[in-house]
């Protein structure tokens, strides 16, 4: 499986097919029993636990099925929290970056709100901002629309695509929803832990 810089691709398959396991290995959350994962010239699968922690903080952004926001932190503070995992970033720089992202995501007026005061779509937008906060090379997205209605789900995926493309990042989105893959460049289909097809979104179902 090879994904180019600037691509936004989907990993499509039924529940239990291995989609989440695969992106967890790609993102350094799980170890691989065989094979290897490379991000540029970095062999992720050969890194030490300490180096993996730094790699995840600096090079990878995660958007999970549930927004997984810290409930007692505001939208802005949820973004600032992850900036604290990276050395060399001042509080002022982080605050400017967080406010810029929240404005781009249409959340400038919600920056001071706690997660419980936000809608499901707004929480996912905060999660996208958090994933982009440290300017990662790779954005991994796991079923971002599972808890949203179709309309809001489309808005979230369209927003993800726009933000990833605008920044020249690489994005991999896990989904089982055919309606969402139209926003991606290519679709990798997975079944029983094996990649079976690579297709263009327009050819699915034909």
Structural account:
Helix 5 (120-132) packs parallel to helix 6. Strand 7 (186-191) and strand 8 form a beta hairpin. This protein has helices at residues 19-26, 49-59, 75-83, 91-104, 120-132, 150-166; strands at 8-12, 38-39, 42-43, 60-63, 138-142, 170-175, 186-191, 194-199. It is α/β, with parallel strands linked by helices. 35% of the residues lie in helices and 17% in strands. The chain is built from six helices and eight strands, in the order βαββαβαααβαβββ.
Any descriptors?
single chain, 206 residues, alpha/beta, Rossmann fold, six-stranded mixed β-sheet, two-stranded antiparallel ribbon, 6 helices, 8 strands, 35% helix
SSE arrangement:
Layout: E1 8-12, H1 19-26, E2 38-39, E3 42-43, H2 49-59, E4 60-63, H3 75-83, H4 91-104, H5 120-132, E5 138-142, H6 150-166, E6 170-175, E7 186-191, E8 194-199
Parallel strand pairs: 1-6, 1-7, 4-5, 5-6
Antiparallel strand pairs: 2-3, 7-8
Helix pairs in contact: 3-4, 3-5, 5-6
């Amino acid at each position: 499986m090879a994904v180019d810089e600037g691509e936004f691709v989907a990993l499509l398959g039924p529940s239990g097919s291995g989609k989440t396991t695969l992106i967890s290995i790609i993102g350094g959350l799980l170890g691989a029993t065989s094979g290897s994962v490379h991000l540029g010239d970095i062999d992720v699968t050969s890194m030490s636990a300490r180096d993996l922690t730094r790699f995840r903080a600096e090079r990878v952004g995660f958007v999970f099925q549930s927004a997984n926001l810290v409930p007692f932190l505001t939208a802005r503070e949820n973004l600032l929290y992850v900036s604290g995992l990276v050395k060399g970033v001042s509080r002022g720089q982080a605050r400017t970056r967080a406010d810029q992202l929240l404005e781009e995501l249409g959340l400038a007026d919600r920056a001071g709100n706690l997660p419980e005061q936000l809608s499901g779509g707004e929480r996912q937008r905060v999660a996208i901002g958090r994933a982009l906060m440290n300017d990662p090379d790779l954005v991994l997205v796991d079923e971002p629309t599972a808890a949203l209605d179709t309309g809001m789900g489309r808005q979230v995926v369209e927003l993800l695509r726009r933000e990833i493309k605008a920044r020249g990042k690489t994005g991999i989105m896990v989904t089982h929803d055919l309606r969402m893959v139209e926003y991606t460049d290519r679709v990798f289909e997975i079944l029983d832990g094996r990649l079976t097809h690579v297709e263009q979104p327009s050819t699915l179902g034909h």
